[in-house]
Write a structure and sequence with these properties.
With about 500 residues, this protein is mostly helical. It is built from 24 helices and no strands. The two termini are about 40 Å apart.
Amino acid sequence: MTEAELSEDADARLADALERVAHGAVVSVPSLLAERLLVVAFTALLTNGFSAAAYGLFVLARRGQRFLAMLALGFRSGLSRYLPNAADDAERNLVATFGSLLVVSSAVVFGVALFLAAPTVAQIAGEGAAFEAFVRAFGLGLPGLVWLRTAAELLRGLEEVWGLNLALRVGFPALQLGAAGAGVLLGDLLLVAVAVPVVAVVAGGVTVGWLARERGLRPQLFGVDASALHRRYARYTLPLFVGNIATTVQRLGFYPLIALFLTGTAGGVFAVGALVGLLVRLPLMGINQFMPPVAAALHGGDHREALSRLYGATSRLVLVGVTGLSVPAVVFRVEVMALFGPTFVRYADLLPAFVLAQWVACAAGSVGILLKMTDNQRALLVGGRGTLLDRGAPAADAGPRQAARRRRAADRHRGRRAGGRSGSDRCDRRDASRAGRVRGDPAVARLRPGRAAARRRADRPLPGDHRLTTSSAVFPRRSTYEELAGGFTSNSTVPSA
């Protein structure tokens, strides 16, 4: 295939991928906006219905639940990775069942641990019996919250955009708002802490029931090659789970410090600032709704040029959208904080810091998703959300080299198929002979056809001489994806620092 034909194929793949991602974003952004508005209404109802100190204790206990939930959800990315590429319904059911069971089981372990540790946590924080009751309630509700998120991941992996948005973006926040209203009417904030996980279980059950009816999804844990599939899923998600621990500690690890050193009011102010700051992430969240299955499908089909260009295009769109939302949030920060009560207005000058943090986090686009969906999940252990450590080689050189090598490999593969077995044998022997001359090893020239290529791949320098620089993350180019993941393969190890 000529370079022009490869470019045309990449253009077609890019157009299809952009259409699928844009469809998910167009449908998701209004629902994401509705979700954020419902969450803001939920928060405003609690902050106006109860004291700032009481809400601060509530939200600190809930953040502890979220911390452990994020750890348990480190196993869920395998659903988006393998569901789009399932060969048949049986394999799809195996992936969905094993992945969901793994995620929910880990959530049960974390929930029980949080429930049992509630007295110790309350004693260390020095917050008293009310805080302990909140911690116990959220510990019991942890599996329910993770169950809902797992059901949403099934919808995402199967690209059910309407079901995902109705269940996760509209249905659950609306039910949560109803629980808050009931708690305010009864004057019991603990009731809200108990009711929210209950509505999460209901929403997750309805979602899975809908998938069973519409897509024929059935629970299946055993079958043909089930054990191999389980091992593959575990091997893929275990590095993500370990890397997710560091990422979660980085993102949410300060909440225990807030509970230990700050008052309940300060914790409530921090939670409100973080909530408003998350509103500027809407463009990235919209793009990311179906980026995982689309990226997994492109990677599975070896359409790396299209995947690289998809990342560049979506990253620019995200940066423009996030900037457009950040400016009004900073300019009208006093009016925004006034929605949550007069206590929070005094801290309006802190809001720009939250907004700036989210802008910086969104600047790199869907880096973490691309690493996970291209089997480079080990890179997350090195750089968190896609910032790889410097190995000393210029990043700009990685893309062209990788692209040219893949084009030559594709042309050679198609030539073998066109020339039949004899052509393949000649090609392999010629390559084996060349490899033997280069390394001075006559034994390589006598390798059977097919083993020469494997020996050449094994003798190549270890990957990892590429780097992702800060400038390439903030200002993506066409070759940014190649710089990011071109030096890694599914069997490679992450370079040491």
